[in-house]
């Protein structure tokens, strides 16, 4: 059964592997932790961090700013791993459409995205969204 789940999530994981190869070519490091590949560090990580991203999960590949930050965000990112396992090839389009739907409703693409809300709800320690002002 686990093999079928990995196979179902493979399209998203392949996107993650392509991104991982790119990150590794910019000096990132790779490790296997808790059943996924984790890529951290390097110049691309710095570029993403300056734009507000600490980590991203694409299937069974998680990329982040640093090894320690990945440890902190692991509960949140592993919710996205489970989502990719549930949604399979539809995960990336579903995630993007859910964000677009929120934007069209005048809400925030990221913080109101149901995929993110599920991940924030699962992580009671570090990955809570910041408090936003009411507009
Ligand atoms: Zn997230």
Q: How would you characterize this protein structure?
A:
The protein has 135 residues and is α+β, with helices and mostly antiparallel strands. It has one domain. It is built from five helices and four strands. It has helices at 2-25, 43-50, 67-87, 91-104, 114-122, and strands at 29-33, 36-40, 55-58, 61-64. The protein has a four-stranded mixed beta sheet, with helices on both faces. A hairpin with a 2-residue loop joins strand 3 (55-58) and strand 4 (61-64). Helix 1 (2-25) crosses helix 3 (67-87) and helix 3 (67-87) crosses helix 5. The longest helix is centred in the first third of the chain and has 24 residues, at 2-25. It starts with a helix and ends in a 13-residue tail after the last helix. The model has no long low-confidence stretch (mean pLDDT 91). Zinc ion (ZN) binds at residues 76, 80, 116, 119.
Q: Helical amount among residues, as a percent range?
A: 55-70%
Q: Which band does the percent of strand residues land in?
A: 5-15%
Structural class by sheet pairing and helices: alpha+beta
SSE string, helix = H, strand = E? HEEHEEHHH
Major sheet attributes: 4 strands, mixed
* Low-pLDDT ranges: none
Q: Report the C-alpha radius of gyration, rounded.
A: 15 Å
Tell me, briefly, the overall form. globular
Brief description of this entry?
This protein has 5 helices and 4 strands. With 135 residues, the chain is of the alpha+beta class. Strands 1-2-4-3 form a 4-stranded mixed beta sheet, sandwiched between helices.
